[in-house]
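Quick one: sequence plus zinc ion SMILES, need structure tokens.
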Amino acid sequence: MNNNFEKLIEYFLKFPGIGPRQAKRFALFLAGEDKKFVADLGQLISKIKESVRQCPSCYRFYGSVSGGSSQCGICSNLNRDNSILLVVEKDADLQNIEKSEVYNGRYFVLGGTIPLANGSAKGGTGGLRFRELFEKVKVLLQSSTREAKHLEVILALSATIEGENTSRYAEKILEPLLSKGGQEIKITRLGRGLSTGTELEYSDSATIANSLRSRC
Ligand SMILES: [Zn+2]
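Reply:
Sure thing.
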């Protein structure tokens, strides 16, 4: 195998959930496709940064319309409930919850969970958006004073040791806001029936609705 082929495999290995065997299968698949297919795919990949924008408010990626609002459709929608914030690990979780149409609050994409190995290392938060989460909750608190007396932050992270750690860390980060100015912030977790991030990504509407109802 030549160098480029190996390099391509290395890139596929960086994709979420892709192991060495799948990475190699992808590379072999591409090698077997015709030139146009590969060229079209290459084009799409090289343009992805221009066609997709990251929302500065919830941090999800969305297809950008030129000249549109700088925030995504969910964040700029005035009809959504500012008194609930659902914190998810990744875009796919958010997309599936949206599809289920059982939630009408705000979102925040944290970017994953803190890897266990990093737990005690420098910084230790795996580049996740904790600072941004703090800011987001602060902004929501300010805007919700007019509409509601309370703000609920639902931590919808994986029911794994990593997810548990991450949720606890998030609670610690938000702690200084809990006692601010007479407003009530409630931090909750999703209820049973739906526990891991992967489940969130693939759950049906009924399960999502159930876990939201039974949050605690
Ligand atoms: Zn957004």
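Strands lie at 52-54, 61-63, 81-88, 105-109, 150-156, 184-189. Residues 41 and 47 are 10 Å apart (CA to CA).
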